[in-house]
Amino acid sequence: MTDGLTTQEKTELKMEILEQYFPDECEIVGASNIKPIAEGSREFIETEYGVNMPIMEVVALIVTIVGFIDSILSVIERLMKLRSKRITSEEVVVDVKNSIDLPEELDQETIEKICDYVLKRLQEKEA
Questions:
Q1: What is the 3-state secondary structure (H, E, C) of 24-55?
Q2: Cα separation of 7 and 26, whole Å?
Q3: What 3-state class would DSSP assign to 127?
Q4: What distance in Å separates the CA atoms of residue 69 and residue 35, rounded to the nearest whole number?
């Protein structure tokens, strides 16, 4: 269950997903800013890119992804409490689609991959 994940592990999970599926956005925002965003910080973000870069749009996307990952964690926790059997990635995807607003910026394949990634990490922790 997600109860087994520490705050640090949740932050690391979010950072892994961001770096794996959104490497360009992470580069734009800067490595030093990814961890605070994953931790939920709303501090002002400094970047080495110029003023012409639409940094706030990229930061907003990353914040949206972090919120989406938090929602997936909640869905999985709820499913694990309701079911005695091991849940599948497909069950998570269906429940996520039915219970939360999906980020418009994410396509179906990315949503499924992120759900699968989070579920596998939680099941590894549980084992």
A1: HHHHHHCHHHHHHHHCCCCCCCCCCCCCCCCH
A2: 21
A3: coil
A4: 14
